[in-house]
Design brief:
There is one protein chain. The protein is of the alpha/beta class and about 575 residues long. It folds into four domains: about 25-90 and about 325-440, inorganic pyrophosphatase (n-terminal core), CATH 3.90.1640.10; about 90-145 and about 270-320, Roll (CBS-domain), CATH 3.10.580.10; about 160-265, 3-Layer(aba) Sandwich (Udp-n-acetylmuramoylalanyl-d-glutamate--2,6- Diaminopimelate Ligase, Chain: A, domain 1), CATH 3.40.1390; about 450-565, Roll (Diaminopimelate Epimerase, Chain A, domain 1). It has a six-stranded parallel sheet. The protein has a five-stranded mixed sheet with strand order 6-10-9-8-7, sandwiched between helices. A five-stranded mixed sheet has the order 17-18-19-20-21, with helices on both faces. Strand 9 (about 225), helix 10 and strand 10 form a beta-alpha-beta unit. Helix 2 runs parallel beside helix 13, helix 2 packs antiparallel against helix 14 (about 390-405) and helix 13 runs antiparallel to helix 14.
């Protein structure tokens, strides 16, 4: 029965260890995420977690807008966590999880712990796990090589219990919790008359089985007497020693071995480094870590959390086996739209419905790109292909994404597949499409408490076309009055901030969903000529009206690209 329980515990430990090492894959949309990029990431994470190994986590590359907030709250779906960039961090390294040592641990026990974990550095922590210092193999070697002072043991003040443990001995008399904190260490191999001249009160003396030497040590009031070779200690000696509170330690080792080993009972606090410690946190970026490691030639560096609690150690060799963050991109494939430091990550898949952009990968990936109105439509198809049931909350999110991207089927990007998917998803979610869409758009067009900057970045994307960079933003409205108010707020902001956006031309679409038209704000050298060439409409005070133009992807961007190439 005992063997069976041990086997169960072993299997459970192996399972927990495997789960701990389970790969995390982040599923993420573009910067300034819209409802489609957020909901598609959430749904695709559900698919992958039900069909693949690993832990798939939906993330967002920016703040979510009011429309998306409304959708997630309506269906009671948590907002994905924020992932600002994918630059490699300390948490992406293989950390050595060497246990922390107590500062009162003896050198001998510290050395054994280092050997057990094949560690060159041992972190020293307090009872709360807070890092207090470090001790290395080099520190231990130096402590042993420089052992010429016979008062060093009392300076370090080890407990008698630690001295006994170091010598594999046992305490016969005296208080094992007290410390040796006064006097010198002597070998009592001399004749008693010579011992009397050398040994003083409170010293520690190492003796053999000679009764006269033991009595001499007691007479001079030593604090501790170590009896070697497991020699028998008479009752009278024990009684005399106990009367004077002298600690007697019986060890199986000879005098030479005891003299050599006793130094290892010194607590590591005496030799550990505790000032100017170089530590890292899990969120520190690797580029900074490399620079610090280069300037400080230590073998291992401790990692602590924000409260200083020890987490593990890393070394230069850790940098060779760095685990790149693994990503699945949804709803974009443009470098200018993706998360920062994308080159530091490993892209596994791309699911998108836009034009094929400028993003490159280091190896082949699964790239699914379909000419539909919404990425959520593709995600719905994947559910169908895998014969997976769609949870009602996720069905609602996917339906909302399709309604948002197709402007409730009014956009020219909308296809029969989008309409069919939205109808099926609305049934699963138990919502009425028109009623829900109006509430969603109304929530999304409420900008009363938003700054001009927040409005501008709500749905803003960059596009690089040959040598020209275009910035195009878009927001939608249910009424003309709300559109006019935002227009008057945005024009001054764009005029002031244009130079800070790193683009040649800026365009912002104020789209009226109900009458299928757009007020276009444009700014930048040559933008008025570009609009005139693309649409043959006048631009007055940086604005023009575009009838039947509501899609950035299918109606605005392609026209601008053609005009630029022309």
């Amino acid at each position: 029965m005992l063997l069976f329980m041990q086997l169960i515990n072993l299997l459970q430990s192996a399972k927990e260890s495997a789960l701990k090492k389970e790969a995390k894959i982040f599923i993420i949309g573009h910067r300034n995420p819209d409802t489609d990029s957020i909901c598609s990431a959430i749904a695709y994470a559900d698919i992958k977690n039900r069909t693949c190994k690993g832990k798939y986590i939906p993330k967002r590359a920016g703040s979510i807008n009011e429309e998306t907030t409304y959708v997630l709250n309506f269906f009671q779906v948590p907002i994905p966590g924020y992932l600002p960039d994918v630059q490699n961090q300390v948490k992406d390294l293989e950390m050595r999880e060497t246990p922390g040592a107590d500062k009162n641990m003896s050198i001998k026990r510290a050395w054994k712990l280092m050997q057990e974990y094949n560690a060159g550095t041992l972190p020293v922590v307090n009872e709360d796990g807070i890092l207090e210092g470090l001790i290395t193999r080099g520190d231990i070697a130096k402590s042993c090589m420089n052992a010429y002072d016979n008062t060093i043991l009392s300076q370090a003040a080890p407990k008698y219990s630690d001295i006994a443990d170091t010598l594999d001995g046992q305490i016969i008399t005296g208080d094992e919790t007290s410390c040796f904190e006064k006097g010198k260490v002597w070998s009592g191999a001399s004749q008693p008359d010579m011992m009397e001249n050398l040994i003083g009160e409170n010293d520690l003396v190492i003796v053999g089985n000679r009764t006269d030497a033991q009595l001499c040590a007691i007479d001079v009031n030593v604090s501790c007497m170590i009896v070697c070779m497991g020699s028998k200690i008479s009752k009278s000696i024990q009684t005399l020693a106990a009367a004077k509170n002298i600690v007697i330690i019986l060890t199986p080792y000879d005098v030479f071995t005891v003299t050599r080993l006793i130094h290892q009972s010194i607590p590591i606090r005496y030799f550990m480094k505790k000032d100017d410690l170089i530590t890292f946190r899990k969120d520190d970026y690797i580029e900074q870590v490399k620079d610090i490691m280069t300037k400080n030639r230590f073998r291992e560096f401790p990692v602590v959390n924000s409260k200083g609690k020890y987490m593990g150690t890393i070394s230069r060799s850790s940098l060779l086996n760095i685990r790149k963050k693994q990503l699945i991109l949804v709803d974009h494939n443009e470098r200018s739209q993706t998360i920062d430091n994308i080159d530091d990550a490993e892209i596994l898949e791309i699911i998108d419905h836009h034009r094929i952009g400028s993003l490159e990968t280091f190896q082949p990936v699964l790239f699914r790109n379909q000419p539909v109105g919404c990425t959520a439509t593709i995600i719905y198809q994947i559910y169908q292909e895998l014969a997976l049931d769609i949870p009602s909350q996720i069905a609602g999110c996917l339906c909302a994404a399709i309604l948002s991207d197709t402007l409730m089927f009014r956009s020219p990007t909308c296809t029969p597949l989008d309409i069919s998917a939205a109808n099926a998803l609305s049934f699963m979610a138990g919502i009425q499409i028109e009623e829900f869409a109006r509430q969603m758009f109304r929530a999304g067009s409420n900008f009363s408490d938003k700054t001009s900057e927040e409005i501008f970045y709500q749905d803003y994307k960059k596009y690089i076309i040959e040598d020209t960079t275009l910035g195009i933003g878009q927001i939608s409205f249910m009424s003309e009055d709300a559109l006019s108010d935002i227009k008057n707020r945005l024009i001054p902001y764009i005029e002031t901030e244009y130079k800070n956006h790193g683009v040649h031309m800026l365009f912002f679409m104020l789209t009226n969903i109900m009458n299928k038209s757009t007020e276009l704000i444009c700014y930048g050298k040559g933008c008025e000529q570009l609009i005139a060439h693309a649409y043959d409409v006048p631009v007055v005070d940086h604005c023009c009206s575009l009838k039947d133009i509501i899609s950035r992807k299918k109606q605005l961007l392609p026209k601008l690209m053609q005009a630029l190439q022309a």
